[in-house]
Amino acid sequence: MRTFAAASLCLLLSLAAGSAFAETLTHEPAKVEVDVPDGWTSATEDDALTVESPDGAVLLLFQILDEDELDEALDEVDKEVGKVIRDFDGKKPESGKVNGMDAVAIEGTGRIEDVKVEVGLALLATPADKVLLVLGLAPTAEYRTNEKAIDAMVASIRPVGTPTGVEVVYRRAKVKIAVPKGWTSQEEDDVLTLSAADESVQVLFTILEASAIDAALDELGSELDEMIKNPRFEEPEDAVFAGMPARILEGTGTIEGTAVELGLALIDTPADKVLLVLGLGEEGRMTKNQAAIDALFAGIRPLK
């Protein structure tokens, strides 16, 4: 824990410039690799890897700790975090696994240099037999804007050499999609369907007739009424997928009497048509697969 406080403070205040990329980075001391979104930059110093969002608002630190056990590391982080983040208010730690590695995660808020920040913290038991700290910091508004990219990045952390999913091409939209490991894909009648390994969640891709997102929103009701009863969505939010403008919506509905959760994106594609991406699963199942779903949405890219 020698460098936790210093590295965390530097992470927020001054990050050395890195080069833009869209690639997989390897953290050698932890023997893990991580997929970094388009436009994010990185810098490495000693055994610390830092990653910065394109707008410079979100910063992530990957750092090996002195402790070998998760519970020991959690106790030490709990002591040290207050030295860097004032008024830290963290939720109860949650245990789980990230690509086979035991992990503990904490979310919370605090202040650094009088700036209110969202704090995301994860501890992973790595193949190097050391605990990896993953610390994310961002002002609240900027965190919300980059939340899907952050979730996808954390979900991609894996032991070096772990087989990853494959890419499929949806030519009608002139896009390619990174399919999460274990998921399956099938295209029939111009509809591409990706299914989770346990088949509890499906993500459908289809082209709408509209050539603009606003018009596609108007068309959406008739499209959904054919398969979903009583769909209810929150207000649309603007987003960008690898340079492609989009609107995203979340909601609920019913399919053949079963309550389902819905996640939907309308994407302006290189084919000059709007791509509808619809994720659906039984209540509770979407949450179970959320990391993979976020990674899938973040992995939609134009064909080059």
Structure, explained:
- α1 packs across α2 (70-84) and α3 crosses α6.
- The protein has helices at residues 4-13, 70-84, 140-155, 213-225, 285-288, 290-298; strands at residues 24-27, 32-35, 41-45, 48-52, 59-64, 86-90, 94-98, 101-112, 115-125, 131-139, 158-159, 167-170, 175-178, 184-188, 191-195, 201-207, 229-233, 237-241, 244-255, 258-268, 274-282, 300-302.
- 22% of the residues lie in helices and 45% in strands.
- The protein has six helices and 22 strands.
- Strands 3, 4, 5, 6, 7, 8, 9 and 10 form an eight-stranded antiparallel β-sheet that branches. Strands 14, 15, 16, 17, 18, 19, 20 and 21 form an eight-stranded antiparallel β-sheet that branches. A three-stranded antiparallel β-sheet has the order 1-2-11, covered by helices on one side.
- It folds into two domains: 4-159, 3-Layer(aba) Sandwich (Protein Transport Mog1p, Chain A), CATH 3.40.1000.10; 167-302, Mog1/PsbP, alpha/beta/alpha sandwich (Protein Transport Mog1p, Chain A, 3-Layer(aba) Sandwich), CATH 3.40.1000.10.
- The chain has 304 residues and is an alpha+beta fold.
